[in-house]
Amino acid sequence: MREVLGHCPIGVRRACGLLRLNRASWYYRHHGREDTAIRMRVRELAQARPRFGYLRLQVMLRREGWVVNRKRVHRIYREEGLTMRLPRRRKRSSHLRVVPPHPSEMNERWSMDFVADTLLDGQRFRALTVVDTYSRHSQLIESDFTLPGTKVVAALERVANRSGYPQMITVDNGSDLTSKALDAWAYEHGVKLDLFGPGNPWRMR
């Protein structure tokens, strides 16, 4: 492992994948049984996901094979002086925005969003829309009075069973589409969530 890291310009995650070595095992062997290894990994994850609190970091650690409870992660999180970064409201810039390249095949990227409307009796309902960005084909329109993360995941799974899983899903970072259930589903199936701030509809094209 040390030879790979010393001779190849790659990170620990990539090196462990090539060697089929569990990252938690490498950190354990390399840094010892004390908190040094877990502290290093908590800092790395907190830097990569600044909007994640200690609870979501603990979920990510367990996915990687760490046997660690919430209390321990919370203690390290506090002792390291880590805090969850809250999103800031920013003024929309007037400079020209660079539109991401258009996908070259189906299931390369989906765009997902919520729309809302009101029935004649005054009840509000929501609809989840999923569009394949390459073909502009509507993959899904799921409507209900409430659409929590579990329902969103169930709807996406039905589409994936029919059409296959996408490589990436473009999601509004300011909406309810950033739930733990969606994050876990995307991780399990190797789907990248392309999160962006509200007020940027150009990313959905």
TrEMBL record:
- Please name the GO terms that the record assigns under molecular function: nucleic acid binding
Q: Which residues form the Integrase catalytic domain?
A: 99-205
PROSITE patterns in the record: INTEGRASE
Q: What Pfam family is a match for this entry?
A: rve
Q: Which domain of life is it from?
A: Bacteria
Gene Ontology BP terms: DNA integration
Check the record and name the Gene3D superfamilies matching this protein.
Ribonuclease H-like superfamily/Ribonuclease H
PANTHER family with a match to the protein in the record? BLR2054 PROTEIN, LOW CALCIUM RESPONSE LOCUS PROTEIN T
The name on file for this protein is Integrase catalytic domain-containing protein
